[in-house]
Structures are given as structure tokens and as C-alpha cells.
Amino acid sequence: MCHPVNRIRHAIKFVRASPTRLDVFKKCVQLSKVASKGLINIDVATRWNSTFLMLDNVEKFERAFEQYALHDPNYKTELEKTGPEPKPDALDQQGPPTQSDWVYVCEFKQFLQHFYDLTNKVSGTKYVTANTFLEEIADVNFLLGEWSDHVICGDDEIFKCMALKMKAKYEKYWGDPEKMNKYIFIAAILDPRYVVDWLLFFCQLYVCCS
């Protein structure tokens, strides 16, 4: 199966493969009146944050890619070489990005942005972050659960597969509180903003267990 993100990634690689192609693409950007000072960038496929930045950037250039397809006859041909004949809206086809790919990317980017924002929040160096780890871990669990439930009820096999993989990886590292670093809990409890909430939580836990 050729993921929509892969089709867009391959399109970016094609354009960036030579200075000539990049010059043609720049002209297409001007013709499309894209309001962006930068150009398309490629991601590190194994890093979610990198993929988010790529998609967040390339989304602005949808019309420029459409223009580029008209100016470079090799664009469509080269991208279709390794796959079957293109079929409208088929997710398993090779080739240039389709209209449905851009819609998919818009939705997928919105989901990845949650992780991007969370990562930036907990990796800050100019403020204390230890007290926020537990809250952020819980937020990720909520997001994955919500996304998985939504996807599993739908027909989008790509989203479903990805959601289940991410959920499984999350459960491996953060699914069992007994295996988590206890300092994460201590830091959260010592945060003055949440002292009352934690006291109520432990009181309820004590009542339930007694």
C-alpha cells in the first residue's frame, strides 16, 4: 500500500532532485501565488515531528505541484514507474499526489500537531518540565484512545493501522504505571497547582480500596 504521505514525500524528492526541477517549481510557486517565503522540505520518515513539519509546510504548495505537473512531463511518468496504473482516489497507487491525498494530509497533520506541541512543551530548556510529564503522558493516552476509537469505527484502513501501531508502542513504554519512573509521579504531586487534585484522587483511591 502506498501511503498518501509517501506519495507527497516522493513528489518532494522528485522536485528537489535537481536544480533544474527546483527552478521550474519556483516558477510554479509564483504562478500559483503561494504565500510562503520558504520552499518544500523533506522529512526524516522515522520521526513524527519531522513529518509534521514537512506536511505543515508542503500543504501550502498544493497548487504549485498541480502547476508543476503541467510543466514537467516526466513528473507523473517517473512517479508512476514503480506502481500500477493510477486509479482515481485509490490509496494503493503510485504516482503524484491526488486530491484525496491532500485532504488526508490536512487531517493527518492536525493529529500530528498534538504530538509536536506536546514534544516542544516537555522538551523546553528555559523552564521546569518534570512536573508536566505525567499530564502530557495522560494527554497522549487520551488522544490515541480517541483517535483509535474514531478510526476503528470508520473505513480508513491507513489511519486504523497507524493508530493501532502508535497505541501499541505507547502501551509498551507508558501503559503500565508500575514500570514508569516514579519521579514522574513525585514531580506531578509536588506541583502546587495540582496538590488538591492529587489529594482528592488519593482519598478516593483509599476509600475504594478500604
Automatic annotation (TrEMBL):
Composition bias, Basic and acidic residues: 77-90
GO function term, MF aspect, one: DNA binding
Pfam families according to UniProt: hAT-like_RNase-H
The hAT-like transposase RNase-H fold domain, residue ranges: 123-200
Region (Disordered): 77-96
Domain of life from the UniProt record: Eukaryota
PANTHER family found in the cross-reference section: BED FINGER-RELATED, OS07G0624100 PROTEIN
Protein name, UniProt field: hAT-like transposase RNase-H fold domain-containing protein
